[in-house]
Amino acid sequence: MHRHAGGVLWVLAYILVVSSPLLFMAVRPVPPARPFLLEASVALGFVAILMMAIQFVLIGRFQSMSTPFGIDVLLRYHRHIAAIALAFVVLHALLLVVHDPALVAWFDPIGGTWASRTGAWALYAFILLTLLSIFRQQLRLGYEAWRMSHTILGIAALGFALIHVHLAGRYISTSWKEWLIVAICVAMVGAYGYIRLVRPALMRRAPYKVVEARPERGSVWSLALQADGHPGMRFLPGQYGYLKLGSPYSLDEHPFSFSSSSETRGRLEFAIKELGDFTNRIGQVPPGTTAFIDGPHGSFSTDLTPAPGYVFIAGGIGIAPFMSLLRTLADRGDPRPVLLLYGEKRWDDVAFREELEALRERMALAVVYVLEQPHEGWEGETGFVTEAILRRHLPSERFERHVFICGPNPMIDAVERALVACGVPDRNVTAERFDLV
Amino acid sequence: MGRFLRHHPEYLMAAFVMVLVVGLALARSAGMAITLGPETPAVVSATTPDERPWFDLGMEVWDARCYSCHADLEYIPELFLADGGRTYLLELMLFGVRGEVVIEGAPTNLRHRSFASLDDEQLSAVLNLMLVAWGNDEALPAAVGFYAPDEVAAARTPERSNEEVLQRRPNPWR
Fold first, then answer.
1. Predicted model pTM
2. Largest CA distance in chain B
3. Per-residue pLDDT tens for A156-168?
4. Which of A12, A136, B17, B122 might form a disulfide with B118, Cβ 3.0–4.6 angstroms?
């Protein structure tokens, strides 16, 4: 409940900040009234600027914000709000043309006045940034290059938009209005600068050394790190961190769930599956490599969601946070019952299955494997985690247990629907999507 | 629907903001706006209607025509007291002014529309109001020469261009 209250507060704060420039239009001194379309266009432009500015904070990984929502959800907001802001900006420009078709000349990036030019540049920077994000893979743009372009274009779009407002600024003629909008934008971009510059500087004081990269089944690696000269971070089981190898300032950082027990301090592990350029090389990371961790992040933890028992539903490498949760619960001697439903393609690829068997001895754990491609003679569940499978295995007192789901997006969507069909209330389900970027 | 919105508050926020945008645009296109604090300029010295019969009219003109752009005019006494400043203020109101001037070392684009459409009574009233509001009356000598409607009428001819008005402008802030 407490977590959700935090979420509601953030949503209200968001609305307040986004609509704050509308005050500029509402409070005197203001220019004489103009036609509705013009005023609506101006209001949309103002709101869109603030939406763009807040984008910098949404990806800032601030724990007070990421705990109520989860960073995966914040990144989804980031994308959806970008689409909304772009729609507002385009509408802002289109309404001007509807009001007066001659204003189409303002779309010329070198024509018009400086006020219209900077506005056009902001619009084009925003569009380019969006296209690069949508078509990053088709364009074969590397992750690091994309992030660099994304940051530069984002700051450029916001900067041009502010100059545009200043030059066009009929509503910004009073200094408090101008200062307010500049201050908000600087604060937002500053928050982003904080995570890019200040936080890495702090991280440098807490380095880790790679101890080993241990192969697991199904091209999964357990990457073990040892805190180097400090006691190591405290994380909650199920949380994750952004791993950087080499430099804390590197843009090449990747979120991975901790897979080790949160009861062991100083040493921690990530479970990483070979899925891309970075993860394919994890097995070759030599012991002794310096590593940095931005974290812990996330709200996917039994410690934040007390319940008399749990149901864990994992798809493939979605097992990673559950390994941390199970190892921690076992280390603590936690008596609460846990049911793990674990979907994977083939039996031979089921990472950690030997250890899961061992964990069953140490805690009240039941495991149900669901194989997509079962071998001959397999007598367990097959296919995907469906409503029928859930009905067969969910404990009869399931309404009391909390359900955690981690896996690929289509699996989470399907399981969430199946849980609703089984009558599990929405508030008893927490999902984590690791398809972040 | 409830479930969708709980999972996607961003669309709820967008819808809410859109309602604000449309509402505000409607209000603004109808000329509405909120006034924080006193809309009319603060007048410091005690004054009786007999002494300043133009006062109410000046306030009316200020609210309708000046306030949307000017928050205050605290610098008027300096301009008024400069050589030719008194005439310049009147001509600025009658003919408007346009061009570049240097204010405190910085080139500044000066632009003011003409208010020749106001009648002599209104123009003299609002000019006099500027001389007494924001504490300006304390910065001016007691025997300040208020504008009279006749004076405004006489200044309407000959008609002057924006450039002429600019040339006749004193600059106390060079």
1. 0.70
2. 74
3. 999 999 999 888 7
4. B122
Structure tokens at B174: 């060079």
Q: How far apart are CA B72 and CA B118, in angstroms?
A: 20
- How many CB atoms are closer than 10 A to CB A373? 12
Rounded distance between C-alpha atoms, residue A383 and residue A399, angstroms: 25
Kindly list the residues from chain B whose CB atom is less than 8 angstroms away from the CB atom of residue A34.
28-29
Domain that holds residue A217: 208-297
Q: Are residues A221 and A80 in the same domain?
A: no
Instruction: Report which residue type is found at A376.
Output: E
Token pair listed for B165: 């008005």
Q: How far is CA A12 from CA A5, A9, A19, A251, in A?
A: 11, 5, 11, 31
ipTM, 2 decimals? 0.74
Compute φ and ψ for A396, nearest 5 degrees: -65, -30
The Cα angle at residue A239 between residues A188 and A145, in degrees rounded to 5: 50
* Token digits of residue A329: 């619960």
Contact A29 B71 (CB under 8 A): yes
Residue A86 shares a structural domain with residue A118: yes
The top-level CATH class assigned to B43-167 is mainly alpha
> How close B70 comes to chain A (CA, Å)?
7
